[in-house]
User: Fold this.
Amino acid sequence: MSAIPPPSTTTITPFRPWPEFFSISSLSVPVSLSDATARLSGNLALFRSNYLAVSLFILLLSLVYHPISLIVLLVALLAWFFLYFSRDVPLRVLDYEIDERVVVVGLGVLTVVALVFARVWVEVVVAAAVSGGVVGFHGVSRVPSLGDEAYGGLLGPGMEEFESGYSEF
Assistant:
């Protein structure tokens, strides 16, 4: 009857299968800037949790030689796990449902602030730049398959060339 889902409907983005994420056969060079931006926005929606996990892993690797900061990051990773990754229902505080994006931004700010106070801000900036590059490269290079629900109307009739990984001019 109503197009708006009830408040109890889950909005948490689940992990996509890692073999699907790392599939080399689904990578190709985009043919245009609009193709690249469509791929990036669709892949960011589809693989949001995977990209967050990869970014946190890159941050973890950048702090290997800073044991105190590594402990701070592990505490932040526990917060990420309990407040974001392990939840299948939206977070509720004082009877208010908190949107997934608010949780991600809040945890991200908390993680960065904690690591800046641990005096490793250069490593955090470098890890963020490397993560952005890795996520951007994967997001632009991965060709959407027809079964990817995050692309919605982007893959309608006439878009079958994306399935093979090759596009024609």
